[in-house]
Design brief:
The chain is of the alpha/beta class. Helices cover 27% and strands 17% of the residues. β2 and β3 form a beta hairpin. The model has no long low-confidence stretch (mean pLDDT 93). The chain is globular and about 40 Å long. The chain is built from five helices and five strands; from the N terminus they run ααβββααβαβ. It has one domain. The strands form two sheets. It has a three-stranded parallel sheet with strand order 4-1-5.
Length: 118
């Protein structure tokens, strides 16, 4: 999980586990940098159940295998994102990625993260 956190913040904060983690809201992320520069952004998670989901994992209803896991969704680990509804609204699943792509509404900066696999 530390490498995902570092990818959006520049630091892994000593994280060497996959436990549920929240990083305080006084910590900057790529979201702050992009917004300060007036650059639109979005994060897309393959099988996240719905926009802004902050749960630990989401299991496939049929196979019970973990599809989405929070540790691969770096921005929801930061309270500076989860405490702001307008930021959570920018973290979507594949279905919405495809809709945004088809309607030519993708943001300027995009992160797309796949499931953990089955």
């Amino acid at each position: 999980m530390g490498n995902y956190v570092a990818a959006v913040s520049g630091d892994y904060f000593g994280i060497n586990h996959d436990d549920y983690t929240e990083i305080p809201s006084n910590t900057s992320t790529i979201a702050d940098v992009l917004e300060d520069a007036g650059i639109s952004w979005g994060e897309y998670q393959e099988d996240m159940p719905y926009t802004g989901f902050t749960g630990f994992e989401y299991e496939n209803p049929e196979t019970r295998a973990n599809m989405y896991v929070r540790k691969h969704n770096p921005l929801v680990i930061f309270n500076s994102v989860t405490e702001r509804k307008e930021r959570l609204a920018l973290i979507k699943n594949t279905t919405l990625f495809l809709e945004d792509l088809d309607s030519k509404k993708l943001p300027q900066w995009v992160s797309f993260l796949p499931d953990v696999g089955e």
